[in-house]
Amino acid sequence: MTREPANGEAPPGYTPTAAEPPNGQPDPPSDIDITASFANLAISSDPPTGIPNVDTTLAHLKLLHAVHSLKEDVGYNDGLWGLWDDRADKDTDIILDGALPSGVKLDSLSKDEKNKLALSRLREKRWAIFLARAVDRYEAWWNAITRQKEMLTEADMMKTRGSRYIDFPTSGAPLPWSDDNIPPLDVLMVMHAHMLNPRAFLEDAIRTNMIEYWTAGMPWLPVNNAISTDFSYNANDEAKTNWVARTGLNWDNQADSMTKEFRCPWCKGGLKVPWTTCGTASEAKGTIGNGYGDGNFSHNCPSCRQTITKEVLSLSKFIKDSSLVLSKSVPMPGTILSMVSGTPEIVPEPPYSIIYSRTFPNRLIQFELRSKILELINPQAQHPSMVDVRELIEKATKDGQVIRKLYGNYSRARRAILPREAKVATAR
């Protein structure tokens, strides 16, 4: 309690004052127009190089915010993919399909809390299917651009100049990005994620000869132009027309077919598989599902009666890559860039190429595992997967006779020891 002054005078008046901001810096003005700042960014039309400037960084933030808004729109789109919110209080499997938050026990949750958790799971599921379809759409765009291109060969990796390998990172003409050819927002999102792993992005670009895409980088100017101050993505009609013409897909992810078309890895027959079974069948329960975009994909081919799973599809992709190294000498993924620098590094010409460790996996497939890998998916195989590939590789790399055959009379092959660098390249 405050005591009155002894002389009977009234205490001094109290006028509140604002606390000094930390470090003596003045508070920011209260009338800053954030949207105006985002609306007037000076983005160069040239491919980005070096450290991003302030405006490019703000354009990046605009993209991230637009993606976040997209995620909210998709998650709260009741009925999307056949997933309706009214299942939240009926389908207990929705809650049981996923791990509960740390320290939370199902029995301790009230009915309302269980309902909110189930609604959250349904929203996450809608977004997960949307993401799977977005990746597929990005691959369709990539394949449309590379369809007429010649892929990298092992011979390209031995050329010291004028090569689409050693000169690739710095010699290309950029893809002419514009407001009229940018892809949909969901595809931009996957494109952005791909570029965030520069090593994988560079290797994929070199292998498929996507030099103009690598050189251009992210199309920040047209992306910035397409994102309004409320962070909605509004590309022009020309961009939408060009996208449909190039890929054969709709501009909107949700407008594409609810079935995925591909060839059966077993019999090569055409298939149409649902993206999700969680909302397509009347008896569907939970959010796991057996569709192409679900977490437990499984489909029986109507032609050959074989079961197709994600494991079989992964193996099929490896077999396809192996076929390319056998038929066209296209190097396997993981053998293209230096393991140290992550950049192209010339492969020595014969006879020294036989002891070059980074390309050992290519030689292993070409001269030892060729038919063994190509025949892994066959009618007699029981649940084939990449585990079978790993077992074949481990057996071959532990066989001194195989190592001597692949290395000839060079290096440590006389002692049948696989060099460490070759082991690392094979593991990739």
TrEMBL record:
<dbReference type="InterPro" id="IPR009836">
    <property type="entry name" value="GRDP-like"/>
</dbReference>
<feature type="region of interest" description="Disordered">
    <location>
        <begin position="1"/>
        <end position="31"/>
    </location>
</feature>
<protein>
    <submittedName>
        <fullName>Uncharacterized protein</fullName>
    </submittedName>
</protein>
